[in-house]
Amino acid sequence: xxxxxxxxxxxxxxxxxxxxxxxxxxxxxxxxxxxxxxxxxxxxxxxxxxxxxxxxxxxxxxxxxxxxxxxxxxxxxxxxxxxxxxxxxxxxxxxxxxxxxxxxxxxxxxxxxxxxxxxxxxxxxxxxxxxxxxx
Length: 135
Prior knowledge:
By secondary structure, the protein is mainly α. Helix content is 77%, strand content 0%. The chain has one domain. The radius of gyration is 23 Å and the shape is elongated.
C-alpha cells in the first residue's frame, strides 16, 4: 500500500515540534547558565576567568547535545489526513527530549558535586603535617 503524504500536516508537525524544542532549549540554557555559574563560582573559589570560560564551554556542549537530539528525533512517521497524530507524536518526542535533558542535567549535577567535594577536601587538608612534638 502506498502511503499518501499530506504536506500541510507534515509542515504543521515539523513547525510544532521544532518550535516547542527551540523554546525549551532556550529556556533551559538560560536557566542552567544562570544557576550553574553560582556553583562554578563556589567550586573555583571566585576565579571569574575560569568560571566564564567553563560556563561558555558548558553552554556550547548543551547546545550541541540538544540540537543533535532534536535533529535525530525530528523525523515524522505515520502521517495521516487528520491532525490527531501530530499531538501524539509531538508529545512523545517532547517527552523523550525532556527525559534526555533530565538525565544530562542529573549527570552534570553529579559531576559538579564530585568536583566540589574534591575541591573542599583539598582545601581543608592542612598544608603542614602535624608532628607528635607539636601536640
